[in-house]
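Entry for the shared binder. Reason: the reviewer on the internal report wants the predicted structure included alongside the sequence.
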Amino acid sequence: MEVTVIIPVYNRATVVPATLQSVVEQTYRPLQVVLVDNNSTDDTLRVLDNFRKEHPGEGFNVVITNEEHHTAGAARNRGFEHATGEWVLFFDSDDLMDEHLVESYVKVIERAQKKGRQLDLISTRSTLIFPDGSQRQAPFHKRDLFAQHILHGQLATQRYAVRREFFAATDGWNINLPGWNDWELGLRLLLARPHVAFMGGKSRVTINHNGADSITGTEFHSRQGQWEYVIDIMKNEVRCSQLKRTHKQRFERLLEYRRLVLAAQYEREGCPDLAKPLCREAYSALQESYHNNRRWRWLVGPVTRSLFKRIAAGKRGSARIARLLY
């Protein structure tokens, strides 16, 4: 069974070699690696071409293509057009794979096949690296995946493998989203009702949140409006889905909580002029969803205000409260 790894690259000439080395070191073959240059202006394309020349061989097929539309989503869609593997991993150009990552995915797939199950999606553990050099395990849950993805981005780009035919039946990556495109895609994948498995054991993906060179970035206020746009899109996707009414209501509330989190982040970044109206918007939407009933007035409303203050102060653990509260 062939597996395809798709990596979009933009101006990562000094960063991407480490990512590519972690792909070469995978213990599983056959492996197809699709590298998509997204109109780089540095030496990235030369680095990619050298990589292809240095690693020819049966069972390791490197494809290089390009995408002029400058968003990661467009580049990933272009890469998917070249994918031939039965399963696909999307990956970022500044992150690292454990050498057994692909092999571990395949073992999960083969175990399911022996039991007569066809999987569509496999979620794995990952480690986050922060600007100060500290690291922690990203939240990983085997239950309540819709909520966990909304709250924690459990289906972020690097944190899953997807069956190619299943992914092809979706609309792919939204090329118009400059940020949080993997969060939005993860929700749509779940709305397509995949058969999901969870890969236990240790973390096999290292995600770089380490400063300005990270794809993720370090602050939010400079791109104000983009994040809110994604939340609005996701709320509409939930509203138009085939989910039960009670599930729709809950997930819309959790998305409003994420709007509240964004407002708190603006506050932490010293932008109260952005934080206050966004906080009011989220609070009002939640209040309306509860019809301003007694539960809202005596419990949910006061706790929601406390959550904003807690997040703005940099305290952790609010998502666990929100998952139970809403």
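Summary line for the report: The first strand starts at residue 3 and ends at 9.
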